[in-house]
Amino acid sequence: MSYFEPRKRIVTKDDLAIWEKSQTHEDLLNFIVDLQNSVEGLTNQAKVHESDAIKELVAQLDVVLELVEKHPVLKERDISRFGKSEFCDFYDDIQKQAPSMFSGLVQDKEAVVELARYFGESWGDRTRIDYGSGHELNFLCFLYCLHKLNVITKDDYPALVLRVFCKYISIMRQLQKTYWLEPAGSHGVWGLDDYHFLPFLFGASQLASHPHMKPKSIHNKEMVENFWEQYMYFECIHFINSIKTVPGYDGNTQASLRWHSPMLDDISSAKSWAKIKEGMIKMYNAEVFGKLPIIQHFMFGHIIQCPEDVPEHSDDEASDCDP
């Protein structure tokens, strides 16, 4: 097989239309649905099958944490109130380490060039020192490649979400706070979250069959405090409440969400988590897979193949993808 470093191919609205009707799009969306279904009714700490591949992935994420510790923010180096320049050192180290991190996982060593690219671009943008749903999508693509390479099977899906993806999100929270990563292409108060989408999508599934927890529970401060470590959706609410303040905020979580996260507030009025679970897939398809500003940065290789009808573009056209 001829593996190669994944690269951007979607440039125009016509390209996007082809992508949305492609088998690659359908396969990735089905992968997300399967992951979502695999954690229905499970807490983050649920006992699930952990294969050697899952354990190795968790171990390599520990390596990423070590790299964060290796590149602390130095006050005398950068007084910027925006992204910290030490992130660039962390980013460069990830790119250097990535090819060797997963060579032991795959039989076909040539595939590492594609794994390393998706993994390396999962942590944010070096130039803008920002992070958004496109980077989160790169991590999902990394996991999808492992599935396509038969490194992981469907039996691994619950652990892939609860052990690997949850750890990734935990690391990203640390990066966002340590390096002051800017939100990439944030929807502002009209988005779910400045940085992430998938924790809401998986988190709604965790709660879909819960006998007592209702969507409006996110407004209960005590409930959020008690359950944020067990459910991804509550972790998201907990994180948002911890970093966003409201003038005159008196501890009323409901008022806070209505002020800075009206979409989450609106979603909480849904009749059930099952409805939210279903709606999250539709929203992800529309707001991530269906948005040119995000998909123009999507990378295609041999494993995740570009739709055949997407034409090759000149370097000048392709460079227009970048801000």
TrEMBL record:
<keyword id="KW-0697">Rotamase</keyword>
<dbReference type="GO" id="GO:0005634">
    <property type="term" value="C:nucleus"/>
</dbReference>
<dbReference type="Pfam" id="PF03095">
    <property type="entry name" value="PTPA"/>
</dbReference>
<comment type="similarity">
    <text>Belongs to the PTPA-type PPIase family.</text>
</comment>
<dbReference type="InterPro" id="IPR037218">
    <property type="entry name" value="PTPA_sf"/>
</dbReference>
<dbReference type="GO" id="GO:0005737">
    <property type="term" value="C:cytoplasm"/>
</dbReference>
<dbReference type="GO" id="GO:0000159">
    <property type="term" value="C:protein phosphatase type 2A complex"/>
</dbReference>
<dbReference type="InterPro" id="IPR043170">
    <property type="entry name" value="PTPA_C_lid"/>
</dbReference>
<dbReference type="GO" id="GO:0003755">
    <property type="term" value="F:peptidyl-prolyl cis-trans isomerase activity"/>
</dbReference>
<protein>
    <recommendedName>
        <fullName>Serine/threonine-protein phosphatase 2A activator</fullName>
        <ecNumber>5.2.1.8</ecNumber>
    </recommendedName>
</protein>
<keyword id="KW-0963">Cytoplasm</keyword>
<keyword id="KW-0413">Isomerase</keyword>
<dbReference type="GO" id="GO:0007052">
    <property type="term" value="P:mitotic spindle organization"/>
</dbReference>
<dbReference type="InterPro" id="IPR004327">
    <property type="entry name" value="Phstyr_phstse_ac"/>
</dbReference>
<dbReference type="GO" id="GO:0008160">
    <property type="term" value="F:protein tyrosine phosphatase activator activity"/>
</dbReference>
<comment type="function">
    <text>PPIases accelerate the folding of proteins. It catalyzes the cis-trans isomerization of proline imidic peptide bonds in oligopeptides.</text>
</comment>
